[in-house]
Amino acid sequence: MIENRYFTEKLSAEEKQAVQELRFKIEENGIAHKLDLNYLDSEEQSSHHLLLWRKKRLVGYAWLSTFAPRELEATLLLLEGEDSFQMVNDLRKYCQDRQIEQCLLIVDHQYKKLVEIMEQAECRYDCSEAYMELEQEYFKQKALSTVQFEKGTLDQAEEIARFMNEGADYSLSADDLEHTLLYKEGEELLACLRVDQVDGRFGIYGLVVNPEHRGQGIGRTVLSTAIQEILTKKPEQIYLEVATTNHRAHQLYQSLGFQDKVVFDYYRIELI
């Protein structure tokens, strides 16, 4: 069987159409994924694509995105019955060649065949996250207090990044700061989160509350403030993700009107 696998930084019109068709076929089988079609046009250096063709038919695709230095996430789409074992090995070599230290593959928890392949390829289960969407009318019925947000500056980038990543050595770009909302009292940073928008879809990420101020309702107020600001833009959808083991946060999100839609499993590719 004629097979062709390759990486590319930018998809051609033909390749993009093939990825869209593959996505629709997978969704018809009730399988979810984290691929947003708007990213197919991305020209960012942090995004790459892996395509698998058989007899001029696209049967496998992976969208690769580097969200942090030396860390990569890959969303994998694969037709039922296809073997992604070699694609996983391609991703492993891709990371090794670029000295990427961590690679996570994202798989719908219901996609049992792909989960089996992850295990056969010696990928280690890392965690699971629930993808949740906001029931906007439910939220609008609530009377919630708000806070005033601030934006960070480039000279604060490392400090904010350490706060968001619990002390990890990391920094934020100007674009990251533009999407990050800070809640401060005086000079003390109490909480922050990030809001990304793709057309009418708004994603809320990385809600972090200062450990010394947890249990005071700050997280709830900060999140509800962000939602109220998003609602002024008439969004089609507001979503977030939460670790399935973080029961406290999950309950908070449910209380504000977020509903579970799908669970994604994360598998770590062993690179050494």
Automatic annotation (TrEMBL):
Keywords: Acyltransferase, Transferase. Residues 115-272 form the N-acetyltransferase domain. Transmembrane segments: none annotated. One of its GO terms (molecular function) is acyltransferase activity, transferring groups other than amino-acyl groups. CDD domains: NAT_SF. It holds the Pfam family Acetyltransf_1. PROSITE patterns: GNAT. This is N-acetyltransferase domain-containing protein. It comes from Enterococcus florum. The lineage of its organism: Bacteria, Bacillati, Bacillota, Bacilli, Lactobacillales.
